[in-house]
From TrEMBL:
It comes from the Archaea. Keywords: Amino-acid biosynthesis, Aminotransferase, Branched-chain amino acid biosynthesis, Pyridoxal phosphate, Transferase. Its cofactor is pyridoxal 5'-phosphate. Pathway: Amino-acid biosynthesis; L-valine biosynthesis; L-valine from pyruvate: step 4/4; Amino-acid biosynthesis; L-leucine biosynthesis; L-leucine from 3-methyl-2-oxobutanoate: step 4/4; Amino-acid biosynthesis; L-isoleucine biosynthesis; L-isoleucine from 2-oxobutanoate: step 4/4. It is an enzyme of class 2 (transferase). GO terms for biological process: isoleucine biosynthetic process; L-leucine biosynthetic process; L-valine biosynthetic process. One of its GO terms (molecular function) is L-valine-2-oxoglutarate transaminase activity. Its EC number is 2.6.1.42. It catalyses: L-isoleucine + 2-oxoglutarate = (S)-3-methyl-2-oxopentanoate + L-glutamate; L-valine + 2-oxoglutarate = 3-methyl-2-oxobutanoate + L-glutamate; L-leucine + 2-oxoglutarate = 4-methyl-2-oxopentanoate + L-glutamate. Belongs to the class-IV pyridoxal-phosphate-dependent aminotransferase family. The lineage of its organism: Archaea, Methanobacteriati, Methanobacteriota, Stenosarchaea group, Halobacteria. Acts on leucine, isoleucine and valine. This is Branched-chain-amino-acid aminotransferase.
Length: 309
């Protein structure tokens, strides 16, 4: 669904609330030409106590951390961005939504050096259902190992959520969809499993969980961290510093993706190989149920993860 079909009308930009249609930038913006922006994607869930933003502090922390390699300074404090986000949700009367903060080098000159380009900051929020579809959450998706490799962390900081990185995600995801798959799995330069275009990956084997370590050229996903915490609290052993080979995917009992957009999405097939019995596996289902119980606040546990609007 396009933005024009949504009931949204306000964007926060550089300290002010502006009409949706007025949130414009110059065509010679540095970030547009060179991908010099950093961003976040968080979710706000509809709960009995009103809209609740999930792990906002961690998203803000990652946003500011992502600026560091690019020497970018956001001219707004965390408190200001938090207040802006809360008010944005209230003004648009959103009960649940996806939240997209972005900071980027703006308009001044177009040398690759950002020079005196100002840092621009904006936040948008809009309704966004299941990223890969409701059916995906229940029945799982078929994924393709991309022919594209993930950037090596020696080439670009893969732990910073930088706009320019996402052309790699676009190439991998579109290649998969062109071939009839819902999403891609992207291998790192070494040929081991990194992650999805916008998701981290988990494998279940013999009742234990495995997810590629941070040195495998992945984003340090907040949902990855959430699932590790939930799984450990449920008594599972989680191996989160490992390297996973492509071949291990084929023999996994279960596989699933995690992400703020994708939430917990089972994977039922990788290329031509059926994973487990080809449906959502029992461990995935337990973790997925727990995840939704937590984010929809049907439990008091983990309340520290929520900011109520
Ligand atoms: N990897 C990549 C490349 C992503 O874009 C995302 C989405 N932000 C993730 C992993 C998952 O991260 P998170 O759980 O923090 O959304």
């Amino acid at each position: 669904m396009g933005f024009d079909e949504m009931d949204v009308d306000t964007i926060w930009m550089d300290g002010e609330f502006v009409d949706w249609d007025d949130a414009q930038i110059h065509v010679l913006t540095h970030g547009l030409h060179y991908g010099s922006g950093v961003f976040e994607g968080a979710r706000c869930y509809d709960t009995e106590e009103g809209p609740a933003i999930f792990r906002w502090d961690e998203h803000l922390e990652r946003l500011y951390q992502s600026c560091k390699p690019y020497e970018m300074e956001i001219d707004h404090s965390r408190e200001e961005l938090t207040e802006a986000t809360v008010e944005l949700i209230q003004r648009q009367d959103l009960s649940s939504c996806y939240i997209r903060p972005i900071a980027f080098y703006g308009y001044n000159s177009l040398g690759v050096s950002p020079g005196d380009c100002p840092t621009r900051t904006a936040i948008a929020a809009w309704p966004w259902g299941a990223y890969l579809g409701e059916d995906a959450l229940e029945n799982g998706i078929e994924v393709m190992i991309s022919s594209w490799r993930k950037h090596a962390s020696s080439q670009i900081p893969t732990n910073a959520k930088t706009t320019g990185l996402y052309v790699n995600s676009m190439l991998a995801g579109e290649e998969a969809r062109r071939n009839g798959y819902a999403e891609a799995i992207v291998l790192n330069k070494e040929g081991d499993v990194a992650e999805g275009p916008g998701e981290n990956l988990f494998m279940v084997r013999d009742g234990e969980l495995y997810t590629p370590g941070l040195s495998e050229s992945i984003l340090d996903g907040i949902t990855r961290d959430t699932v590790i915490t939930l799984a450990e609290d449920l008594g599972y052993t989680v191996h989160d510093t490992v390297s996973i080979s492509r071949g291990e995917l084929n023999t996994a009992d279960e596989l699933f993706f995690t992400g703020s957009a994708a939430e917990v999405t089972p994977i039922r097939k990788v290329d031509n190989v059926v994973i487990g019995d080809g449906s959502r596996g029992p461990v995935t289902e337990e973790l997925q149920n727990k995840f939704f119980e937590v984010v929809e606040r049907r439990t008091d546990e983990y309340d520290k993860w929520f900011d109520y609007v």
